[in-house]
Automatic annotation (TrEMBL):
Residue ranges constituting the Transketolase-like pyrimidine-binding domain according to the UniProt record: 5-180
GO molecular function, one term: oxidoreductase activity
Species this protein is from: Streptomyces chlorus
This enzyme's EC code(s): 1.2.4.-
Keywords: Oxidoreductase, Thiamine pyrophosphate
Co-factor requirement: thiamine diphosphate
Name by which UniProt lists this protein: Alpha-ketoacid dehydrogenase subunit beta
InterPro entries assigned: THDP-binding, Transketo_C/PFOR_II, Transketolase-like_Pyr-bd, Transketolase_C
Protein's UniProt keywords contain Transit peptide: no
Top-rank lineage group of the source organism: Bacteria
């Protein structure tokens, strides 16, 4: 039976199920044990599974990921938490030089089933290094899978699927949506990990988003409907690989596309989507593919982040420009 829960609680329940089901699953990170994580995502897990399964680590991200790589080589399935998005960069070398490449380097003999959990994005009024959106940096690296749920149901099931994957998965958690609630059915898998999903049907234009921006795009579609416009909203769920077939199917129907993400537009995932869909759908498009995202600037202080982040008006402006062609 489905239960309504917050996205953070859904991840907690998913980790709990994985720990209970597979003794090789470990949870590691700064303050994940006794404190339960700064967002309480791992609350109660150490109490129930012990300090050898839910491990409080030193403040050393490269050491956390490096240790996880060694554990994975010995048959474990570590789930490591990077406390905030901007703290992942000390571990970037371990992730892209070792974690992403050892499968290829060993000609497929070595599997590294490591999940790297990263709370990401803005909207919570945090200080510097706590509101980044670095997903494109990881999506560019062959050998890594990069995913981001937008709701509690996906958070629960995508975490299960990520842990069961033999490939390393970078699991971006939209921290501004941690407290958003949705129905979670612990018995009904919503679909494969790397497939997109239409969350709202429409005919005039496609909005593509993932993670924290899916809810915004649904609000945009509601606002556009008041003006008689029918917008389709597609939740990518996965940034690498990208479900181009789903995007193409939607664009062939609506003939217009706007891509929305918090990360900067410059060299963002929207650029790859725009280029690929232009190639695939050239004769279907009635307007250029437009992108809405952050600016090519360091993330601003909290008092300015509302001006930096995409909002209803900025996305609606892109919709207007597309429909004006």
């Amino acid at each position: 039976m489905a239960e309504k829960m917050a996205l953070a609680k859904a991840i907690n329940e998913s980790l709990r199920r994985a720990l209970d089901t597979d003794p090789k699953v470990l949870v590691m990170g700064e303050d994940v044990g006794k404190l339960g994580g700064v967002f309480r995502v791992t609350d109660g897990l150490q109490k129930d599974f012990g300090e050898s399964r839910v491990i409080d680590t030193p403040l050393a991200e490269s050491g956390i990921v490096g240790t996880a790589i060694g554990l994975a080589l010995r048959g474990y399935r570590p789930v490591v938490e990077i406390q905030f998005d901007g703290f992942v960069f000390p571990a970037y070398d371990q992730i892209v030089t070792q974690l992403a490449k050892m499968h290829a380097r060993s000609l497929g003999k070595v599997k590294l089933p490591v999940v790297v959990r990263i709370p990401y994005g803005g909207g919570i009024g945090a200080v510097e290094h706590h509101s980044e959106s670095p997903e494109s940096l990881f999506a560019h690296v062959a050998g890594l899978k990069v995913v981001s749920p937008s709701n509690a149901s996906d958070a629960y099931w995508m975490m299960q699927q990520a842990i069961q994957s033999d490939d390393p998965v970078i699991f971006f958690e939209p921290k501004r949506r941690y407290w958003d609630k949705a129905e979670v059915d612990a018995e009904a898998i919503p679909g494969p990990l790397h497939t997109a999903r239409v969350v709202r049907e429409g005919t005039d234009l496609t909005l593509v988003a993932y993670g924290p921006m899916v809810k915004l795009c649904q609000e945009v579609a509601d606002a556009a409907a008041e003006e008689g416009r029918s917008l389709e909203v597609l939740d990518l769920r996965s940034v690498s690989p990208l479900d181009f077939d789903a995007i193409q199917a939607s664009v062939e129907k609506t003939r217009r596309l706007v891509v929305v993400h918090e990360a900067p537009v410059f060299f963002g995932s929207g650029a790859e989507i725009a280029a690929r869909i232009t190639e695939r759908c050239f004769y279907h498009l009635e307007a250029p593919v437009l992108r809405v995202g952050g600016y090519h600037a360091p993330y601003p202080p909290a008092r300015l982040e509302e001006s930096y982040l995409p909002d209803l008006d900025r996305v609606l402006d892109a919709v207007d420009r597309s429909l004006a062609y």
